[in-house]
Amino acid sequence: MLNSVRRWTVSGLAAAIVMVLGACADDALAPSEQWVTSAAGEGRFSVAWRSTGMPLARNESRDLDVAVDLDGEPAAGLDVAVRGWMPDHGHGMVRTPPVRDMGAGRYRVEGLLLHMRGRWDLHFDLRAGDVAETVSFVVDL
């Protein structure tokens, strides 16, 4: 059982970035250089992520760079899983992307595929020994 579930709405931030930069397609989330972060102090873990190379886009496989802190320090050696869920449709992703530990609290999600347009709840399930949390983000494609 996970100790804490947090949800962060990033769609407004992403929309503002897209409007300012004007460089993304209709179904892209945000430029790849933009990190999306959870707020500190809501739980023991904080998460920052970004798409590598290209913005997140509907039905296109992307890798994510992920940085995780536990109690303010880089969290290496975690068990990390990423799940996507479409609450309006009642289903998840068509495949589960593997997550590779890159060391020093950095992780690579390989081949994330959000196959439909709409709202996705992107969940990062994190476990370090007996400490477990899910940090969630809302992504609108």
Helix/strand layout:
Elements (H helix, E strand, L loop, with lengths): L4 E5 L1 H11 L14 E2 L7 E7 L10 E9 L2 E2 L4 E8 L4 E2 L6 E5 L2 E7 L6 E10 L2 E10 L1
Parallel strand pairs: 1-11
Antiparallel strand pairs: 2-3, 3-4, 4-5, 4-9, 6-7, 6-10, 8-9, 10-11
In short:
By secondary structure, the chain is mainly β. Helix content is 8%, strand content 48%.
Could you describe the 3D structure shown?
With 141 residues, the protein is mainly beta. Helix content is 8%, strand content 48%. The strands form two sheets. Strands 2, 3, 4, 5, 8 and 9 form a six-stranded antiparallel β-sheet that branches. Strands 1-11-10-6-7 form a five-stranded mixed β-sheet. The relative contact order is 0.26. It has one helix at residues 11-21, and strands at 5-9, 36-37, 45-51, 62-70, 73-74, 79-86, 91-92, 99-103, 106-112, 119-128, 131-140. It has a single domain (5-140), classed as Immunoglobulin-like, CATH 2.60.40.1930. It is globular. A hairpin with a 2-residue loop joins strand 4 and strand 5.
Please, how many helices? 1
What proportion strand? over 45%
Kindly report the average pLDDT value: 80
Instruction: Give the number of DSSP strands.
Output: 11
Largest sheet: 6 strands, antiparallel
CATH fold-level name = Immunoglobulin-like
CATH architecture descriptor text: Sandwich
Assigned CATH class = Mainly Beta
- Class of secondary structure makeup: mainly beta
One letter per element, helices H and strands E, the order comes to EHEEEEEEEEEE
Would you identify the CATH H-level superfamily?
Answer: Macroglobulin (MG2) domain
Shape: globular
Question: Uncertain regions: pLDDT < 50 for 5+ in a row?
Answer: 1-31
Helix content: under 10%
- Terminal-residue CA separation: 30 Å
Radius of gyration: 14 Å
Integer count of domains: 1
